[in-house]
Amino acid sequence: MNLSRFRCLGCQAAYPLTETFTECPSCGALLDVESDLQAFGRSGQEWRDLFDKRRSALPSEETPACDMSGVWRYREHVLPSLPEDKIVSKPEGNTRLYPGRSIAGEYGISRLFIKHEGENPTLSFKDRGMTAGISWAHHLGIRNVVCASTGDTSAALAAYAAEVAEMQGVVLVPDAKITSEQLSQALHYGARTLALDTDFDGCMKVVAGLARQFPLYLLNSKNSVRIEGQKTIGWEAIHDLGWRVPDWFVIPVGNAGNLSAIGKGLREWLSLGVIEKKPRIAGIQTEAADPFYQSYLTGFTKRITRTAAQTAASAIRIGAPVSHPKAEREVKFFDGIVEKVTEMELLQAAALANRHGLAICPNSAVALAGAKKLREAGVIRREDLVVVVATAHALKFSSPAIAFHESGQEGANPARKVTATVEEVAKALGL
Ligand code: F0G
Fold this sequence. Notes:
Elements: E1 4-8, E2 14-16, E3 31-35, H1 44-56, H2 75-78, E4 97-99, H3 101-107, E5 111-116, H4 126-140, E6 144-148, H5 152-161, E7 168-174, H6 180-188, E8 192-196, H7 200-213, E9 217-218, H8 224-230, H9 232-240, E10 248-252, H10 257-272, E11 280-286, H11 291-297, H12 324-333, E12 337-341, H13 343-355, H14 362-376, E13 385-390, H15 398-406, H16 422-428
Parallel strand pairs: 5-13, 6-7, 6-9, 7-8, 10-11, 10-13, 11-12
Antiparallel strand pairs: 1-2, 1-3, 4-5
Helix pairs in contact: 4-5, 4-8, 5-6, 8-10, 9-10, 10-12, 13-14
The structure holds ligand F0G.
Residues 124, 126, 149-153, 221, 252-258, 315-316, 361, 363, 391-392 line the site of ligand F0G.
């Protein structure tokens, strides 16, 4: 079934989804994937029943990986034109929704949940978009896929490209600005990895130029096919909650693809009647890289960009978010809010979550610290149902964690070097 097409956000031109465009060839604006989901003729209840049935099915040896995926469970709403035998799935999704009770107590939010996207196969939410992007590339018979990355998209691209015979991944990363764990993923999965002497925004410019001139398929979130997979984060969280819609989704913002994706998915489910309530969305940035927040402060009358500075939240060290226009649209539609947090606030939120056994990364902690700030300001109310999207696993970012614990700041828990004798160890433990 050919139910989808690209639609330009600017001039509204439509193009077949089989084109490899990541921007409008006529006016240069971003593209959306637009699918006729009403064509299935199912009611909201029928969709919920179908997804419930898939979710509760017991897997056997014959079960295709896509049936076990928290992305492809919703496949008609992801890429309805994709043949099932082209799906490249590990499978991804099915991440836990943690009831953050201990954190909720400290923050004064009585119903706080954390959707831990760090539990995906490459330890970040990027797998949800990448399974869509690589499956579509596989369907189109594409050989060479490329992205610029702050470390997580590159890991996901490398891992999914590795699943397809004769597909080669190429990744451009800013030299010395991604973590060793992230870099090791791209290398291990066999991507051709180039470390450029620039920042993420510089890598993005180069990769966009490369993809325009050479037969390389761009798999940054600028590729709107990837956005279709990422929509499932919001859907799965609602499914996890037994179809309850939270009052708030709180999301960290870097290149702004994820907020755009979650918002698009929620709009689609509203129009299909899968959900009836409109949640609010809060996008949170770090002070070191806050162009979207700065733009929000102008009422989005200006699109502000900046040079992003050093931060422990290195995955969102981005000064010119590519998906800004889409994220702006979602913030407006969902009566959203954009907030920023300081380095200290994000480090302390990371330490707090991890101390309660929730292994979330500094970028995720930006969202958590944002939820705290919005609660303190009275924007989030005590009784609100809040879902914080944790985007990656703490173990991808061990250096900032260790640096924080060696810093002596509030919440730090440094390791001590002790001579290997019972006496010295007992003394160190105060026994
Ligand atoms: N959290 C993590 C862990 C990320 O890796 C990213 C983005 C974000 C949040 C922000 O999501 O860009 O959609 O607003 N990482 C990209 C990358 C840029 O290359 O891995 P966004």
